[in-house]
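Dear Dr. H.,

I hope your travels went smoothly. While you were away I took the liberty of generating a structure for the chain from your last submission, since the lab meeting agenda had it listed for discussion. I wanted you to have the full record in hand beforehand rather than looking at slides cold. The sequence, exactly as received, is reproduced here:
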Amino acid sequence: MCNRPCSLGCVGGICDKQSATCANGCVQNWAGSQCDECDSNHYGSSCSLECNHDCENSTCNGTTGLCTLGCKRGFYGYKCDRQCTCCPSGCDRLTGRCNGDCLVGKQLPIPNTENRSSLYVVITVLCISLLLNIFTIIWIFRNKACKRHDVNQGKKKDTDTISTPGIYDTAEENAGYQELGPLSGPSHYDHLQGPATIK
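The corresponding predicted structure, in token form, is as follows:
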């Protein structure tokens, strides 16, 4: 049974051979019958770290330093290392939100800014996506309208060339109406020749 050393927390390193209980008590900051754990106000591997004084009774977990009995009024967080702002009735131990009303002219603290910045990123991405979708829809409608206009212009040109007959086409189709009748008055040719002379 003598193969197990006494705890580092035993005064002088002396303990009972059977129970490992420290004979002369514990070194400062150590506790337990075997002096193998931190007292309620210290934590860490060598019990050299003090619990936060804003922990209730300055009591914390001996390994992690987290407050075991909660925080004093006006503080929050696992180690009670954050201060509540403007909360007369205290605040929630984890979130920092006021218990009850805030002081006049004050508002609830917003402890988590990571969620807020993530929200801004999501809103920005959604706005950009919306704008891109609107521009894409406008572009599609304009292209369809331009294609319809081009098709209508092409049809109009085709019908213009087919339905509008030329002068010679009309002459061939209406050959019976091409004979000239007697002139009703003097022509320009007659005026150019001058008065007729008798021989």
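Two observations you may find useful: The first helix runs from residue 113 to 163. The longest strand covers residues 30-31.

With kind regards,
E. W.
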